Structures are given as structure tokens and as C-alpha cells.
Amino acid sequence: MGEPKCPKCPGHPALREEDVNGVRVHSCGGCGGVWLDKGELNALAHPAEGDLEYCSLERLAEDRVTNLPCPACPDVRLVQVNFISYTDIVMDYCPRCQGLWLDRGELDAVTAEVRRLEQVPESWDHRVMVFLAGLPF
User: What is the pLDDT of residues 26-79, one digit of tens each?
Assistant: First the structure.
């Protein structure tokens, strides 16, 4: 696998490496998009328990294949997935390397949504289910 290339900009220029909150990501100076290797979305947006990337791929079969080449696997087309099913945040996913392409502002939107969810108090139903799940049956 060579240098990741921007799937959106004409001529597909190479992406530059940059540090975002201690995580090395690839970004495009032209369109402002960001390429995240598998696991980097979790590290950036939710450095705690849980797998945001898995939540985003729950209904992958229902989503669309784009005409965008994967920045890391140029012979593979990216597939659009929603970040958590109820949001309007759409990311582009590579089914081969499992990386994610986020357009300008989408990483900020994901981070804001995660922070919003962290502020929602847990329901009693959820607390009871967590308690029951921890019992040794």
C-alpha cells in the first residue's frame, strides 16, 4: 500500500500526515477531508469503552457504493455509511482496509454527537439491563 490519496480532489493528490490529539491521521489540504485508518475514529472521537466504528457499520449492506476510490486501496470503491443510524453524518468506508473517509467538518460533527450522547442520563431500563448482564448466570 502506497501513500494515501485524496478520493475527492481532481488528480487524487497525496494526503499529508498530521497529528490530531495524539493520533496520526491523513488529511487533504485541498478539500479538508480526513482519512482514518481502522481504529483511529475510536481514538479521536471517543477515547473510552465502545466501538464507534462498529456502530457505524451495523447496516452496511443497506448503504451505497460510491464512485470514490479508497485512499489506501485505489482499486476499491468506498461505501457510504451513517455514523450511528439516526444521525445525518455520512462517512465513506472501505470494506477492504476498513478505513473511513470524513469530509471537512464530519470529524467535528462525530465528536460533538459523542459528547452530546455522553451528557444524556442513562434510563433506569438501561441501568437494570447492565446490572442483569453482570450477574453470573
Answer: 999 999 999 999 989 888 876 555 555 555 555 555 558 899 999 999 999 999
Q: If you count them, how many residues does the chain have?
A: 137
Q: Which whole number is the average pLDDT over 94-108? A: 93
What is the 8-class DSSP label of residue 72? Answer: S
pLDDT at 32: 96
Query: Strand ranges (DSSP E) for the chain?
Result: 16-20, 23-27, 34-36, 65-69, 77-82, 90-93, 100-102
Please report where in the chains the cell 476499491 appears, as a residue.
76
- 3-class DSSP state of 5: strand
- The reported pTM is 0.77
Q: Are 35 and 27 in contact (CB under 8 A)?
A: yes
Eight-class DSSP state of 62: G
Dihedral over alpha carbons 95, 96, 97, 98 (to 10 degrees): 20
Query: What does the alpha-carbon distance between residue 104 and residue 96 come to, in Å, rounded to a whole number?
Result: 23
Q: Which of 12, 8, 5, 11 is nearest to 31 (CA)?
A: 8
Identify the residue whose cell numbers are 483511529. 40
Which amino acid is located at 120 in the chain?
V
